[in-house]
Amino acid sequence: MKITILGAGSFGTAFAAHLALFGHEVKMWTRNCERAEYINKFHKNRSCFSETDLPHAVSAASDIAEALAFSQHVVMAIPTQSQREVCGKIAPLAKEGVHMLNLAKGIEISTGSLLHQLHKELCPQIVYSALSGPSHAEELLLDMPTTVVVASKEESEARMWQKIVSAGSFRVYAGTDVIGLEVGGATKNIYAIAAGISRALKLGDNASAALACRGLAEIMRFGAKLGANPLTLSGLAGVGDLIVTCYSIHSRNFRLGLGIGSGKTLKEASEELGQVAEGAYTVRAVVENAQKFDVEMPLAEAVYRVLYKNESPTKLIKELFARPLKAEMRF
C-alpha cells in the first residue's frame, strides 16, 4: 500500500521506516527541499537518526501537493502547534474521504482545541483517526516491542489503520474514544516535565511515583470534563503513555524538566533540548481550560508557574504539601 507521511521529524521518520520495512511504499513530506533531496539520494534523514539507513521504499517530497497525490492514506506527523498552518495547505488539496492518521500529541494553544476538533474545522472532508500510547521513536525504529491505540469515531476506520500499521513488534489496539486518546496523549507531557524537575532536584522515588499517580488523577478529571471515557485513560493512551514519558530519558518533556530543575530558564532548557517538547505548550492550554471548566489541577498549575512565572519549584512543592487534606479519588 502507498502511504503519505506529512512531516520528517523523529517520529515521522521512524514511522516511515516501520511501514516500509513491512511492505508499504512511503512518501514523506518535508518543507525543506534539501532534506527531501538528501533522503531520496542517500536514504538517510540527516536531521534525525542520521546514521540509520532508511528502506528504499521511503522517498521524500518538498511539494505537499505531490505528497498528497501519492496516496489517499495520510499520516500526520507535524507538531501540534504547526498543524493549523499545514491543515490550511491540505484543505484545498485533499479529496473527499482521505484517511488521516494523526501521530501528534498536544492541544492547540491559540484555541484550546484538541486535534480532532482542529481537523474537523479545517478539513471536514477527511476521515480522521489518531494514534497514541507509549511509543518512543528511537525504539520504534529498532522494532522493539511497542503497543499503542488507534481511535476513530468510526470503529471500522480504527480497525483499518490497526491492520495497516500493526506489524513485527508493533501491536495496535483499536477504539472509538478519540477524546480520551487525545487528552491522555497531550496532558501526560505536563507531568513528564514535573518528573524531570523532580529528578533534577533529587526528590526521590516516592515523589516520582506520587507525581505520576496524582498527575493521572488530574488527567482523568480533565478528561471526564471533556467527555473522555475513564477506561481509555487507564489504558495505553493514558497510564501507559504517562509512565514511559515520565521515566524515560528518550522523553523530550522529561529532559526539558531536567533542565528546568537544574536551574535553567524555559528558553535555555528548550534551546539545549533542540527539539519540540509539546508539554511546554500544552500546559498553557490545559491550565486555561481547567480554569474555564472548573477542574482542579494543582500539579499542572505548578508546572505552568515554574515555566512561565519563573517561580521556584521548591517553593511550589511546599505549597502543594500545605494544601487541605482530601480524599484520594474525586471526580
From TrEMBL:
Domain Glycerol-3-phosphate dehydrogenase NAD-dependent N-terminal span(s) in chain numbering: 2-157
Gene name of this polypeptide: gpsA
Top EC category: oxidoreductase
Name of protein: Glycerol-3-phosphate dehydrogenase [NAD(P)+]
Residues in Glycerol-3-phosphate dehydrogenase NAD-dependent C-terminal domain copies: 177-317
Binding site for NADPH: S10, F11, R31, K105, A137, R252, V276, E278
GO molecular-function terms, A-Z: glycerol-3-phosphate dehydrogenase (NAD+) activity; glycerol-3-phosphate dehydrogenase (NADP+) activity; NAD binding
GO BP: carbohydrate metabolic process; glycerol-3-phosphate biosynthetic process; glycerol-3-phosphate catabolic process; glycerophospholipid metabolic process; phospholipid biosynthetic process
Gene source species: Synergistes jonesii
The keyword Methyltransferase is annotated on this UniProt entry: no
UniProt-annotated location(s): Cytoplasm
Keywords: Cytoplasm, Lipid biosynthesis, Lipid metabolism, NAD, NADP, Nucleotide-binding, Oxidoreductase, Phospholipid biosynthesis, Phospholipid metabolism
